[in-house]
Amino acid sequence: MSAQRMPTQAELSTALWLSGEAAIEVATAAEGAPDWPPLMRSVGELGPEVALMPVVQLDEAHRARAARVGLDSYWYPVPRARVERAQAAARYAAEQHRLRSAAGPSDWSVWWALLESAMRGESGPLRHVALKLAVDDRKTEHGMLFQDALARALAQGTKSVTRRPAQGAMVDEAGKPRIRVGDLIWVREAWRITVIHGLECGLAYRAGGSPRVAIVSLEQAGSAVFRASSTWRPSLHMPRWAARTVLRVTESSIEQLQELDDVEARAEGFADSQAFTNAWDAIYRDSGHAIGTRPRVVVLRFKAELK
Predict the structure, then answer these.
(1) Which of 39, 57, 78 delimits the end of a domain?
(2) Same domain flag for 168 and 286
């Protein structure tokens, strides 16, 4: 199936179907990804067995999602062949891990279990798998800078949302968030290489937490940052392979910022509302985005990505 092309009847008959909110979420993530179909809408109430029409404008589905009206009429045909290719890759990776080490299950074996559940049509695993594969095919990742305290909260799983002024690289030409549902964010934080053995290096992070080991390519090993250091390197200089925290965006929107309540401030990684306000204004007051001005901001909610 080519990008945003109406699938054939044969393709529809083998597809793995998602419905409702999950269908809209995956269709949004897959928009622009080669070989992923458009969102479908059923004419009637019997599901994908009845007549289906492609949804040309996703804004229509987003309005239905926000209003919680008519969600049951939306369907998404996840390409079975794409999930089967992912299964083959996971099977090979899991076997390679088993041959290298018997130290317990790898992330690949966890991913394999999710793929098996998706192939059985289980909606939760299928949604997770489809989001990951669609974004991988769209090749949309974003590095984002975080201060030490927030990088620590992200690594510990206590920060689940971030807000940034709706300007520059955060928005597209239409003023909508450039980072979309399903996209990946890799956290850029202060870091350093502690030791190098061939193409393997030890990594430490100024925000704390357990050190980790990364294996790099020959090209990456030839870069200027691939050298052991006793001093911390700024987050701006962190390459993708050194990141320890990867996040999957679950909600992306624009709002006018005002003082947060304590619950939302804690979701941002702060102790309370005043701590968030102080930190925000310290960073953005001089650029005219103090909270008192009610600036437009991009709001990104996320969860840790399975690695």
Answers:
(1) 78
(2) yes
If asked whether residues 69 and 17 sit together in one domain, one would say yes
Task: Report yes or no: 146 and 187 within 8 Å, Cβ to Cβ.
Answer: yes
What is the distance of C-alpha 54 from the center of its chain? 25
Last residue of a domain, which of 46, 78, 110? 78
Is 191:242 a contact under the CB 8 Å cutoff?
yes
Q: Averaged over 81-99, what is the pLDDT?
A: 78
pTM of the model: 0.62
Closest CA to 60 of 47, 76, 50, 74: 74
Span 14-69, pLDDT tens digits: 999 999 999 999 998 888 787 899 998 887 654 555 567 887 678 888 888 889 98
Same-domain pairing of 254 and 134: no
Pick the more confident residue, 13 or 190.
Answer: 190
The token pair that represents 71 in the structure block: 């969600």
Same domain, 174 and 203: no
- 30 and 176, same domain (yes or no): no
pLDDT, tens only, 134-177: 888 876 889 999 999 999 999 999 999 999 999 998 998 788 89
- Residues contacting residue 109 through CB under 8 Å, at least 6 positions apart: 94, 97
Helix ranges, the chain (H): 9-14, 20-30, 58-67, 80-100, 107-119, 123-138, 148-156, 218-221, 262-267, 273-284
Residue among 95, 91, 96 nearest 115 (CA) = 91
How many helices (H) and strands (E) would you count in the chain?
A: 10, 12
